[in-house]
Amino acid sequence: MLQTVGIIAEYNPFHNGHQWQLEAAKKQSGCPFSIGVMSGHFVQRGEPAFFDKWKRAEMAVRGGVDLMIELPTVFALRSAQYFGTGGIRLLNSLGIVSHVCFGAEHADLTKLKKIATATRDSQILADMHLRLQTGSTYAAALGYAVEKNYHISADILNSPNNILAIEYLRAIEKFAPDLLPIAVTRQQSHYNDLTMTAPFASATAIRNALLNNRSITDEIRSAMPTMTAEMIKQLFAEQRGPVTFSNFSSIILAQLRTATLEKLEQLPSVSEGLHYKLRESALAATNIDQLITFLKSKRYPYTRLQRIITHSLLGTTQSQLAVFDESGPLYARVLAFNQKGRLLLKQMTQYSTIPIITKTTHFLSSKERDHHHLTPLQKMLSIDTVASDIYSLGMPSSNWNRGAWDFRHPPLYIP
Predict the structure, then answer these.
(1) Residues 153-168: what's their mean pLDDT?
(2) DSSP alpha helices (H): ranges in 285-408?
(3) Residue 192, pLDDT above cutoff 70
(4) What is the rounded CA–CA span in Å between residue 135 and residue 138?
């Protein structure tokens, strides 16, 4: 069997830090092959991806990843716990992945594993529950409980990457005990750092710079592989991006204004009467930024609200996600691959415990999507296709607004 290292990412877009992590993953694992599991058209923060999933997957393959697979939307558009678990379960289901590599600000596996194990401690859970009831975020509640009971500084949980690392380790322990974790220290920039620093800048800083300049400046070019820069330059020329949350303001407000209170209450992560405030705020707001400002509170931080709003856009519900959380990912949807990736695909057909999807219509057609009696796999896949249909409406040019992308777009082979 081919020795393969897996990476769970968003590549939004692929930059020098991602390429450095990939090279470190191969070096530390000794694996000559790599597989990336990537968010599709909506990312973990609840936002639309800057560029479409096939172009982002192409950037990653041109940057050295051998095979890119989509993380189903029902896991990608979630908090760290579900995002991390979905990614680990998907990698493990492929049957050929021996290692998984992730970045962290504190890449101390011993300490990270200790925190991951601590989340099973009854006292930790009790202390977390009390904090959550007072409106603390999950990360703040866990940090408080770990510092109180294990004397590990809560500061380690101030970084989204450290939180994700802990969730990956929790998922490995529960679902994939044979998967070997590799933690690498993020290079220079932090996850949400807004400062452009060559050669390593955060994806957030790069996206902001791209939005402000609407072109590839020397500063932006210095933070990403040459091929990524050239691809983004072409995407700008074709008006095939960037796609931002503000592009969906009218659609989102229309969705929230016309939804019943019962439907709003069923949205993932909605609780304690937020559905009433969603309705009131949607009637008062004139754009998406104003809507989130009206809704934001200690209990409902920015990213959680963005996810809730995007779920309203896609029509996903709490009960749907609960079913999918039990099953885990039910397929591996291929986005892009190179020659080495082709070898991985051949091996996956022998060892994977879930179907490998290279053509959506072999599993779900646009007509079937409207039926009520879909299989669990078809239901999960239909949400991915709906996400693509809505995402295309956020494209800067109407040339890209046509729907049914998933039924027409094959995986990309990059020689």
Answers:
(1) 88
(2) 288-295, 302-314, 318-327, 339-351, 376-391, 405-408
(3) no
(4) 9
Instruction: Give, as one character, the DSSP assignment of residue 36.
Output: E
Are 173 and 116 a contacting pair, CB within 8 Å?
A: yes
Helices (H) and strands (E) in the chain, counts: 20, 8
List the structure tokens of 172: 């490995």
Instruction: Find, among 305, 381, 376, the residue nearest to 46 by Cα.
Output: 305
Neighbours of 197 (CB within 10 A): 15
Answer whether 50's CB lies under 8 Å from 42's CB: no
SS3 content of the chain, % helix, strand, coil (to 5): 55, 10, 35
Per the model's pLDDT, the better-predicted residue between 106 and 386 turns out to be 386
pLDDT at position 187: 67
Place of tokens 């599991």: 37
Phi, psi of 5 (to 5 degrees): -105, 135
Cα–Cα dist 299/309, whole Å: 16
At 333-365, the pLDDT tens digits run 999 999 999 999 999 999 999 999 999 999 999
Please report, for the chain, the start and end positions of each structural domain, with discontinuous segments joined by +. 1-105+159-242+328-415, 245-318
1-105+159-242+328-415: CATH topology is Rossmann fold (3.40.50)
Q: Is 410 helix (H, G, I), strand (E, B) or coil?
A: coil
Separation of alpha carbons 288 and 392, rounded Å: 18
272-275's contacts with Cβ under 8 Å and 24+ in sequence apart are 272/299, 274/300, 274/308
Contact in structure between 337 and 344 (CB atoms under 8 Å): yes
CB 19 within 8 A of CB 63: yes
Helix (H, G, I), strand (E, B) or coil at 352: coil
Residues 13/51, Cβ–Cβ less than 8 Å: yes
Higher pLDDT, 5 or 105: 5
Identity at 357, one-letter amino acid code: I
What b-and-e string marks burial along 89-113, b requiring 16 or more CB atoms within 10 Å of the CB? Answer: bbbbbbbbbbbbbbbbbbbeeebbb
Q: Check whether 106 has a pLDDT greater than 90.
A: no
pLDDT tens for 114-146 read 999 988 889 999 999 888 888 788 888 888 998
**The token pair that represents 255 in the structure block:** 């969705």
Residue range 319-332, pLDDT digits in tens: 999 999 999 999 99
Which of 111, 109, 174, 172 minimizes the C-alpha distance to 147? 111
Q: Helix, strand or coil for residue 68?
A: strand
pLDDT digits (tens, 9 = 90+) for 380-409: 999 999 999 999 999 999 999 999 999 999
